[in-house]
Design goal:
This protein folds into three domains: about 100 residues, no CATH class; about 190 residues, no CATH class; about 150 residues. It contains 24 helices and no strands. One of its GO terms (molecular function) is zinc ion binding.
Amino acid sequence: MEIRRLISCQQQADACLYQKPPPRVVPSKKLVEDLSASVERYRIVFERLFPGRDIVHLATLSRDDLIAMVGMPATAETISRISDLESPVSTLESEGAESLEALIQAPEQDPVVDEATRHQTRVQGISDDVNGLSLSLGRPSSYVGVSSITAALKVICRVAPATRRLLAQGQPETAIPSRVGSPSPEPGSLDPTHLPPAELGQTLIEAYFSKVHPLMPMLDEQSFWLTWLYGERRDSPWLALLNTVLALGSVVSSDCTSNAHQAYYQRAMQLLDFDSLGSGNTLVVQALGLLSGYYLHYVSRPNLANNLMGATLRQATVLGLHREYTDANSSDGLPTNKATSADVRRRTWWSLYVLDTWANTTTGRPSLGQPSRGITVQIPYVKDAQDPATAKFLPLLHNVAFCRIATQIQDALSASPLLPFEELNRLDKDLLQWHSELPASLKPSTSHDSSFSTKRRSSKASKRSNTADTLEIPSMIMYWRYQNLRLLLHRPYLLATALRNVPDTSLSAEEKVGVGRCRAVAARTIADISSMCPEDLLAGWNGVWFK
């Protein structure tokens, strides 16, 4: 072997050198301990800045995205939820309906903070209950579907993770509307039998029947006025309904800084205890319906409203309000003057149906099978659309037709958030036809009408008819709700497209139509509400809700 090496060296004319290997450095125990301590300090800092995060995932994010995530907790219960919100669009495993399904999560079990605890904390911040329910950065305490603001916010957070930090910084502490910061009176300090002065009571009742009643005309106005003026009735069902009417009348006759309505509401709630759910009195159903269908949404208690409305509908079926009766048994053998009139029964049932559908549409919750074949009660009939006394029932008549389409849409979106284009197109055509068939008195002038400015000026200069005044705000709210439902119908296409993060040129023709309609309806809704909404609390509240 040595001879071969020498020959090789001679042939290559290379010097034969022996290179010693570099000495192996054996780190001292102290050095290892120092390095381990340094790594541990880095780990502690990292955990404080990004608790529960995966460093491999964080290494792929930009500086702005990393800054946005600083301090965002990720507990064992919520780590999967947060990773869903923060993962880049390219990591989505599927497109379309499957990706939208991932946005809908089961609510947290036994949440530390929910609607009830937020309501007890303080009064502040949000102008409507739907957005207040949806602006939750943590795991939801209640279920909301793809039609909710939550779904849209989650898509925004996926596409632009830095949005989460902005939402966290600007998020109000509660979902209670910004009325006034003063505490409400304690329920025990309010006498449920107390009545306001006659002049104030009359003002509030007039406000209710002129502004609220046309939207949900379940009360017998003439009978209500007679009972109030005589002032002899003091039973709990009547006082509960009276205080409910006074609460809503107080809301619409004042501005958003007033909390005078709270005293009437608390008196009504003292009278409407659990035992009242077993009552056979229609006045109790009407009081519960008005509170759960409208008032509780104004004070941002959507979950309480939803639960109470469910009980109210059950109670209405116990009273048989869901059925149409023949003349022979409509009064169950009682004289006509002692039985609830058929018209009031119909208006009560369908008002409850409309109120329940309105709430479910914007929270993305299913209709639970309404209406069904078992609902046989007829829709109220308006004899003379020009008579102010009966014209106020026109909105209910057409809102029932609208809500039948809305329940189809909501149930379809609850089953699959991304509808087949054929089904979407059919439902959109139903909405367009519904709007085209509305009477002229329920079609407000919009900002896109050529005569809009002229009509606005002339309406101020000339005296409007009583019918037109009664239907002005209800017709606006109906139009905004119609526009909002069209937007909710098409928005899943926009959300799915945003999740895919692809250019418009790569979209299919159907996707382009869905996205284009959603954007066009949204732009028009903003413009119409901005130009149409008068300085009226009821109109303004609904305008903020849909804008």
